[in-house]
Every structure is written in structure tokens, then in C-alpha cells.
Amino acid sequence: MLRLSGRIDDATLDSIEEILIGADIGVKTSNKILQSVKLRLKKEPLLSPDHLNQILREELEQLVTAPPAEPIEKRTAGHKPYVILMVGVNGTGKTTTIGKLAYRLARNHKKVLMAAGDTFRAAASGQLEIWAKRAQADIVRQTEGADPSAVIYDAMSSARAKGYDVVLVDTAGRLHTKTNLMEELKKIDRVIKKQIADAPHDTWLVLDATTGQNAIQQARQFAQSVRLTGLILTKLDGTAKGGVVLAIQQALNLPVVLIGIGEAIDDLVDFNPHDFITAIVE
């Protein structure tokens, strides 16, 4: 809760800044919010600490890029198959997120196919296969070290031939600074388009909420290689508040589509901007 001494003073502004920096929003975006709050406070009388919190919440919500109007279950109905390409650096929880998403879609009567495009990490395909069984989805995989593009090509062919509703494409976690791996990601995107011209219909960057400001650079680099359409924020079940996503949205205008809030298979939920901002302020 913000401190209030009856007037707006340095302590009040410091309190606002502490909240913003503590939520990992970053200096640049925090300064932008702070200036907006100052302007608001010059124009309207401050009534209470709750009122100050409300002003801060409103200013933060204005920075949130609105998520898609329709939940993923409805959005995937426009194409068959609907292809979602998942990208991100190592350790963000990408494969687990794909498993949770497959479960959610299958539970809503979607026929789901997973494409195990991470052929570099020894356990990746096996991990995805375990998730496929849990989610009652199917999977296309090859041996470790296989060409990821070949796996994706087979998956697209199978999806078209067998009438799958959704294809979830896993890719190897890659450092955004590794040029060769980013070029491979471009190749995967091209392979998908050869099979289905308007696919991938979504390309989502999976970000670890605990990453901090480094996530901004990650997002910029991935956006240069593929056409990102949204973000998934994972590991929000701990102390992370994920405020860095506001800075990313300011830089790239990308909505947060889903958030991971725990380890359970159904702990992947739609992003709610109001709840997200409330968690930062409180």
C-alpha cells in the first residue's frame, strides 16, 4: 500500500517508485508511469491512500496491451488446422506450457497434434510425449539430432491429412544471441508456410516472469526473426510479479495471451489485465 502524508511529497513519489521498480517494470517505463501519475495528481484532489492506489492502477492499466478478445478455444476455430508456433530461450517452461495448452484445448473437444521440434535436447521429445499422453493429444517426433524442420514438415502433413484442429509446434530453447539458431527458427517458419500458407496463425514467445529486464532484449531479438503475435508469461506462482511485461508491451505492442500460475496441468489461464495490475500495486 502506498504511503500518504496528507499531500504529495517526495516520500509519496518514492513509495510509488519502489512499487514499480520492485515489480520489475524497469526504470524507463517506471519513469513514464511516475510522470503520468504526477500529472494526474496536479489535476485532481487526492482523497485517500486508496485513491492514490486507484490512480496508479489506472495509469498502469493504460500501458497494458489488451489481450485477444476471444479465448484460444474460440480463436482456433477459424482455421483447420490452427498452427501455434512456440518460441523462447532455454528454461522458460515452453515445453510444459505446450503440454498444459494441449490439455486445455483437448478438454474443449479440440483434436490436438504436438510437433516435437526440439531435437537438440535429449529429453525434450520424451518430455513432450509424456505431456501428450496426459493431455490426450497426439505427437510427431523423430530421433535426437534430427532436422527440426523435417519434424515440423511431417507434423504439418499429418495435421492436414488427418483433420487435426490445432498443431502446437515446440522448438528448441535458444539463446536470443545465437544467430545460427535464430536463422533455424526462420527456416521452421518457412517450412510451416510451405504446407499451410497462412500459418503459423500465432507465434507466441514464452517468457519466465522471474527473468527481469533481460526479457526485453529476448523479445526484441525473437521479434526480428519471426512475427510474434503474443506473449505467455510463466512462473507467476512465486515471488515474481512480471512487471517487465509492461516494458515489453511498450516496446513491441504484444499482448499477453496466457499466464502460468503453477505446476498443475490446468495452471495455464487467460491473462486478466486488471488482476495483473492489482497484484503489482498491492
Q: What do we call the CATH topology of the largest domain?
A: Rossmann fold
Termini separation comes to 6 Å
What is the string of helix and strand elements? HHHHEHEHEHEHEHEHEEH
The level-1 CATH class of the largest domain: Alpha Beta
Largest sheet: 8 strands, mixed
CATH homologous superfamily grouping of the largest domain: P-loop containing nucleotide triphosphate hydrolases
Give the class from helix and strand content and strand pairing: alpha/beta
- Average per-residue pLDDT, rounded, comes to 87
What is the radius of gyration?
21 Å
- Tell me, briefly, the overall form: elongated
Q: How much of the residues is beta strand, in percent?
A: 5-15%
Count the beta strands. Answer: 8
CATH architecture verdict of the largest domain = 3-Layer(aba) Sandwich
Poorly predicted sequence stretches spanning 5 or more consecutive residues: none
Number of domains: 2
Please work out how many helical segments DSSP would assign: 11
User: Helical percent range?
Assistant: 40-55%
Strand order of the largest sheet: 3-2-4-1-5-6-7-8
